[in-house]
Write a structure and sequence with these properties.
about 525 residues; alpha/beta; 6-stranded mixed beta sheet; 4-stranded antiparallel beta sheet; 26 strands
Amino acid sequence: MTSPSAPGRATTALRLTASLFATGVVLLGCGGGGGGSSPVSGTRPDQSMQQPPANPTVPTDPIAAPGAPTAADLDAGTLGEPFQYWNLCAAPRTGRDFQGQAFPDKQGTLLDEMKFLRAWSHRYYLWYDEIPNTYKMADFATAVDYFKVLKTPALTASGRAKDRYHFTYSTEEWEKMTTAGLDLGYGVTFKRNTGANIPRTWLVTLVEPGSPAANAGVQRGDMLLRIDGIDFVSTADADSVKRINAALFPEAVGTPHQFSFQRAGAVFDVTMTALEVSVQPVKHAKVLETPTGKVGYLSFETFNAVSERQLVDTFTTFSQAGVNDLVLDLRYNGGGLLYVASELSYMIAGPDATRGKVFERPQYNDKTAPQPAIDFLSTAYGFKSPNPVRAGTPLPSLNLKRVTVLTTSGSCSASEAVINGLRGADIEVNVIGGQTCGKPYGFTPVPNCGTTYFSIEFKGVNNKGFGDFPDGLAPTCQVEDDLSRPIGDPAEGLLAAALAYRQSGTCPTSSARARNVPMEIVRPAVQEISIYSRPRQ
C-alpha cells in the first residue's frame, strides 16, 4: 500500500520520538483519562475514580497522521499550524526514552502546547466544526485540561455523549504496552458492576501467567473484598478511596499491598507488589478434536506489536494441524493495531475470499484528503517488538468460510473491526456471548511534551461500506461469561455454546448463570482502541 499524494500534504510516515504518529496508528476507541485503569470512587466506579497522571513518550514503528510532515519539513521549521508548535514544551524532557531515543522536546511555553492541541484538533478532529469556541486558553492550568474541552458537546438520540472516546495517556506507558507488551501492575484483570458502585462487585476475569497475581494464587472468578485492610466493597470516604486507588493502580514498581479475596465462600489474603508485567496477547491456543473435524481455539487479548509474531506462529500451527474451523475468543480484547487485525482476518479467510476487497476504509473529516483503505494484508507488516516478524513475510491462512467469535461488552474497536471486516468479505461470522462495546471510530495517537493525546479522526467502514455500530454488534447467541471455569476449558459457558452452535446451528437453551448486575471490564481507555499503521514508503 502506498499513501496518496495531495497538494500541501506530506505522505512520508515518520518515526516520532514523542508521537504516536510514529506508530502509524489509528485507534478506534473509548473515552477516559490518562494512564492506568479506570479507578474507584465513592459513588460511580469509573467516571469518578481518580485517574493516574498522564505524561507520555513515544512508540516505535512508523505511523503518520494524514498529512503529517516529513523529517525534513520538521527540521526546516517552515511548517504552519499545528506542526510549528509541535514539541515546544513548557518543561522539556532531557535524555532518552526507554528505547534509547532522544526526546524531541524543545523549550517552549504552556501556550505553545495549547496552541498545538487547538490547531491539531481543528485540522484533524472528525467533528472539528462542533468544537466550542467559548473556551479561553488562559483559563486552563494544564494542556491536558484544555484538551478535555476540545471535542463536540453533542449528544446522540439516546442522550449519550457523541464523543465518549477523548482521552490522554502516558506515552512511555503506551509505548511499553503496545511495542513491548509491558503493563505496570499485578497482572490481573477485573470485571466490576456498572451501576451505583456501592456495594462494589469486582471479580477476577484474567490472570497473566507468571505475574504477581498468578504467583500469589489469584484465580479467575475470585471476588475482591479488602485492600490494605480497607473494606473495598462498601468504603465511601475520600481518604480510603484514595488509598484503594493507589493500591489498585500503582504508578511505580516496588510497593507491596495486601488484598483479600473470596473464593467459593472462603476468604484468603495475598500480598502483591506491582511490576512491569509482560502481557501475552495469545493466552490459549489449541486444537480441539470434534465429531465434525478439528477446531482451532484461540484466546486473544490485544492487537499489539508483540501479537503479530504470536498470531503468525499460532496460525502456522493450526494450518499444519489441518484445522477446518475456528473459535476466536475476543471476549476481553479491547483492540489495538488495525494492521494486526487485518492480518488476523486474512489468516482466517485466506487469499481467495479477500482478494480485491477492503478490510477497513477510514472516513476522515472534509479537511482531510481521502486516505488509502486497509486491505486484507497477506504479508506481515513487521512491527518492532522483542521477537518481530520480518516485514513482507507471507502469512499462513486457514481459508475458512466460517468463524465463531466469542464476545462480551469488553470486545472493542479492532476486535469489532475483525468481525465487521470479515463480514464485509462475505465470511460467515457467528458471534457467541454478549453485545460488543460499539467503537467504530479511530485515532492517530499524538504525543507532545510527554503526553499522548487521543482524539477521534475517522470512522471505519468495511468492504460493503458498513460501519454503523455505535451501540455494538449484536451476538448470534446471547450467552453469559462463565467465570466458574478457566478460559479455554471446552466446558466453559461461551466456548461450550460455540462448539454446540457450530454443530446444531441453534443457540443453547441454557448457559452460565446470569449475574444479577451488569458487569464491565476494568481497564484503561487506551486498551480499547483501533490503531491505523500507515503504509511503509
